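Sorry, any thoughts here?
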Amino acid sequence: MGRCCRLVALLLLAVVALAAARVLLWRQADDAERVAAKATYLDGLAARAGGRRPGPNVVLVLFDDLGYGDLGVYGRGGAGDAIRTPHLDRLAAEGALFRNAYATSPYCSGSRAGLLTGRYAVRSGLDHVVQAPWTWRDLLLRLGGRNRRLPLEEITIAEALQAAGWETAIVGKWHLGDFSPSLPHERGFDSFFGLLHSNDQGRPALRRNGEVVEAHPIDQETLTRRYTDEALAFLGRPRERPFFLYLPHTFPHVPLHAAADRRGRSPAGLYGDVVEELDDSVGRLAAELSARGLAGDTLLLVTSDNGPWFQGSPGGTRGRKFDVFEGGMRVPLVAWWPGRIAAGRVIDEPVMGIDIFPTLLELAGLPPPTDRVIDGESLAPLLAGTGGLAREALLFFQIDKLRAVRAGRFKYHDRQRLLYGNPMGWPLAPFTPRGPWLFDLAADPDESYDVTERYPAEAARLRALLEAKRREMAEDRRGWW
């Protein structure tokens, strides 16, 4: 018996030692061939730009965990009068409102990877949440050999615009890597002011470019205001070149914080105070663009990285952050460009964060890279009112698993394990297999009623499409040409 116990102990010790070695020796590798192809592409953009003035200016505002229903302009099932968002509501009335816009992923990092590269997050291997270094969740990522930063071979929209002559800046939360070569100033941004992670991860520190300017614990109550002031300072600089300002706010991700003079104003509590301060931030940006005569030359886009988490309204849709149901994936999207986007445009065609990359390339007159799949499609025809999109369907991933597809009014979910409920308060909640389902989102936007029996041909078509896309991803996940 004693010998058996010693053998078991030695085996366990060996397993622990192997796991520790894997964690300590973990290294993320980049694809040298594709890095070289990327450099060639970016050099080509620089040569193409030449001495001409490219354009337009772009301001991209990204909220963190803002619900589809948190803005007054989205109406049904939303926050109603509990949260007042007059500035965003006005921009939507003066520009375009997308009613079927989706994040690329129901997770922070994956959504941002898709937004900046125009590719599904699974292609970059950043389809999960990047964790603060040497936390237990980070150790699990290392143990599993998962990517901890955006691979160098991926091309961000900031890198493309920077190469073509734009002045670029990021103010806010990065969350695509906390070490070289995937820090913000290494991925196409001339300047960075903000956090590398979510405000609940590790020991958040405020950085300017590569330097810590405020160590942990930072004053989170003033983050939204400081981000906005920094963004306004960037807009106010004299310049000859067009600019790309990326403003990924920290909030309303938890823990929630609002400026002292903003607290207690909203009937929706602290969450409402936070969202109303964010609305004011966007209002200040739009006012600055107008005051400086830049509004007619600047596309302002406002969206969220995924649906709401513990608080916030999914706008009457099913699910929340981490779900591929509508509540986890459908997000606000407002586009404002006076004189270029007709006031009051309401766009119902399904779009996704992956569409931002090709949209900005087209508006800038720049070609897309030819050595890789760009999953997104330019929204320029929708913004101009001159046409629609050509794609067959949008894909919905949970981490690296393809779970659902949407084509037109229909959305198909495969059979998957879903939370059944936890009335006993067990430490591990039970999950049970459910589905597959076909939902008619035109009649049932909250995905409550399976219509497979009514539309069997549509269910069979989308099931076949989902399975075909799974095979395609299995054969060439990275999407290289």
Summary: Residues 26 and 142 are 6 Å apart (CA to CA).
